[in-house]
Amino acid sequence: MNSKLKTKIGSLQLNNPLLTASGTYGNGKEFSSFLDLHSWGGLVTKGLTLDSRTGNSGIRIVETPAGILNSIGLQNPGIEYFLREEIPFLEKLEIPVIANIAGRRIRDYEELARRLDPVPAVSALEVNVSCPNVREGGLAFGTNPALIYEITSRLRVITDKPLIIKLTPNVTDVGAIALQAEKAGADAVSLINTLLGMEIDIEQKKPLLGNVVGGLSGPAVRPVALRMIYQVYRQISIPIIGMGGITRGEDAVAFILAGARAVALGTVNFVNPRAPLEIREYILKYMERHNFSSLNSMVGLAHQEREA
Amino acid sequence: MLQENAIIEINRQVAPGIYYLRLESPGIFSRSHPGQFIHINLGTTYDPLLRRPMSIFNAEEDRISVLYQVVGRGTEILSRFNPGASLDIIGPLGRGFEIKEKSRHFLLGGGIGSAPLVYLAHQLHRENRKAIFFLGMRTEEFLFLKEFLPSDLEFYFSQENSPAGHPRLITDLLAPHLESPEKTALYCCGPEGMYRQIGRLCGGKNHFSIQVSIDRRMGCGVGTCLGCAVKVKNPPREEPEIVRACVEGPVFPWGEVFANEL
Ligand SMILES: Cc1cc2nc3c(=O)[nH]c(=O)nc-3n(C[C@H](O)[C@H](O)[C@H](O)COP(=O)(O)OP(=O)(O)OC[C@H]3O[C@@H](n4cnc5c(N)ncnc54)[C@H](O)[C@@H]3O)c2cc1C
Ligand SMILES: Cc1cc2nc3c(=O)[nH]c(=O)nc-3n(C[C@H](O)[C@H](O)[C@H](O)COP(=O)(O)O)c2cc1C
Fold first, then answer.
1. For residue B185, what pLDDT is reported?
2. What is the mean pLDDT of residues A238-253?
3. A265 forms bridges with which residues in the sheet?
4. Using the beta-carbon criterion (under 8 Å), do A271 and B218 form an inter-chain contact?
């Protein structure tokens, strides 16, 4: 371990800036045969809802140029099962676990926060207000600044755990939304969730995904994610967790320079389970090459005044 | 399950558009079981992005092999790898065929779906069990498979383009063998339409135990992305359950997937 990589998200201490992106890593178990889970800075769980959800039917995952479209539909066994069956594994981990929560109504989020607040193994909450794959909800919150304010302030009352609001890229002004999360007391924002997209099967002459639309992730979205992080960094002062298409060390460094204090890896895990190790090595070498003694001193450096 | 850099020994076309790939992969070899698969990384670029799932076609002497059909970009890229190069693979993945204690073992392969059954045929042969291989195909494109099977294995094939009076479907081959009341295990891999027809012939009779390998588009292959969902019904549970083809499958008892069609 190298203390140069330490970073903080609110009161949450991370040994390195690499987090798992929600929904791409299960709760870690599946990957433990490829690497030591403690190589991560922290583990973000699969999206949790109050009741179990079976997810969408039909084709749920489609490869697109340098990316994938998914319409899993928040399949998960529900909070009850999570607390009973998953927490025993997670509480043995010596890295912070961040629970990702999703709901249909504000009440659902409140209830989830109430249930998770007393759980010692859960170090922080990431609030998914932006899932594109659930017809009833998620995205509706994520695109409305007033609702973001409302939901954040209600959760703030319920828990002192670091509260991370996960933003959707499917809006025209992501900064305005981030600002409301900050005003309402969020400790951090994370972005981006997936970009809404679709694919058509031209032989069958119909949409390929069972859910018609899905969320785009992977390298294809990286420049969009980077731009949004850069933009949001200029408008808020709480930490940003950056994600969207990171596959290599260079990508992670770019996100940090744009303003991310931590970064999450999602789709890349499906291709290269050792990506976090390679990326961590790269960041260290980069820091050496550029004489950075702490990760923190790199954050947002791309915003320096440009020379004429 | 492990990640291994496997050296390519052979990657050669064995029939039009069909390739035989043999890899030196001692770790995966020693853990694998018929019906399981590997997940192949196609190279260093991220387009195409995902790994490609391929059934283990055979496993012997620290080697595993795969039989694949070129159907798109990924398999086309795979076909261009030369011997000596290495491939980043993950495996063995999933739950394979369970060899049942029955007096006969029927292996039913539809086209390229026959791949994992070749491995199973060798395993049954090693265990001295009585097996018959049934191969269904469009034309004669998969006849070469016989060369990869134990030489004394009973083998039948059907062709959709056969003249009248000759077997056209795999069920035409199978039907005459079903009259005996002998306890029989059926292991199937092919299109789902084939599973339905086989089910219609044998379903509901308890001296047949049928397993099928379910094909889904896969993301991670290790159970986290939940892309390869399969709806199964496991009595006495009333509600169907959603499970993962890559972890709980790809092989399932026929009834779990198709029971509501009986
Ligand atoms: C567990 C498992 C084992 C498999 N074993 C073998 C094997 O032994 N030999 C073999 O040749 N193939 C096998 N396949 C299928 C193989 O993975 C796909 O043919 C391959 O991924 C296609 O890649 P591509 O880039 O060439 O095609 P793409 O360009 O991705 O697609 C070409 C066409 O195939 C369709 N397609 C892609 N993936 C799938 C899929 N999983 N199921 C159905 N249609 C699909 C696409 O819609 C498109 O029409 C297996 C699949 C699974 C899930
Ligand atoms: C299969 C899949 C499932 C996902 N599930 C969730 C989820 O449950 N909750 C959530 O907040 N984000 C979810 N996401 C979004 C990711 O956490 C991440 O924001 C997005 O994929 C961008 O990062 P990437 O390009 O590195 O994958 C999911 C993404 C994928 C690909």
1. 95
2. 98
3. A20
4. no
In CATH terms, the superfamily for domain A3-307 is Aldolase class I (3.20.20.70)
Q: Which residues contact A10 (CB under 8 A, 6 or more apart)?
A: A124, A162, A163, A187, A188, A238, A239
**Domain spans of chain B, in order of start:** 2-93, 104-261
Judge contact between B120 and B107, C-beta under 8 A: yes
Task: Kindly give, in sequence order, each residue whose CB lies less than 8 Å from that of residue A299, ignoring residues fewer than 6 positions away.
Answer: A256, A257, A259, A260, A261
Sign for the pseudo-dihedral over CA of A284, A285, A288, A291:
negative
Q: Do A31 and B222 lie within an 8 Å CB cutoff? A: yes
User: In degrees rounded to 5, what are phi and psi of residue A247?
Assistant: -125, -20
The CATH number fitting domain B104-261, selected from 3.30.2350.10, 3.90.1170.30, 3.40.50.80, 3.30.1950.10: 3.40.50.80
pLDDT tens for B121-165 read: 999 999 999 999 999 999 999 999 999 999 999 999 999 998 888
Our separate counts of H helices and E strands in chain A read: 10, 16
Helix (H, G, I), strand (E, B) or coil at B143: helix
Chain-centre distance for alpha carbon B159: 19
User: Which residue has tokens 């049942």?
Assistant: B100
**Mean confidence (pLDDT) of chain B:** 93
The response to whether residue B74 sits with its C-beta less than 6 Å from ligand 1 reads: yes
Where are any strands of DSSP class E within chain A?
7-9, 12-14, 18-20, 43-44, 61-64, 67-70, 97-101, 124-128, 163-166, 188-191, 195-198, 200-201, 206-207, 213-217, 240-243, 262-265
Handedness of CA B123, B183, B36, B190 (dihedral sign): positive
CA distance A275 to chain B (A): 12
**What ipTM was assigned to the predicted interfaces of this complex?**
0.92
- What does the alpha-carbon distance between residue A196 and residue A194 come to, in Å, rounded to a whole number? 6
Q: Report the topology of domain B2-93.
A: Elongation Factor Tu (Ef-tu); domain 3 (2.40.30)
Please state the length of chain B. Answer: 262
B93, B83, B11, B108: which is closest to B52 by C-alpha? B93
Instruction: Considering only the beta carbons, identify the residue of B49, B218, B242 that sits closest to A67.
Output: B49
DSSP class per residue in A142-177: HT-HHHHHHHHHHHHHH--S-EEEEPPS-SS-HHHH
Instruction: Tell me how far apart the alpha carbons of residues B98 and A119 are, in angstroms, rounded to a whole number.
Output: 41
CA distance B168 to B159: 5
Calculate what percentage of chain A has a pLDDT beyond 90.
88
* Cα distance between residue A301 and residue B61, in whole Å: 55
**Residue A131: active-site member:** yes
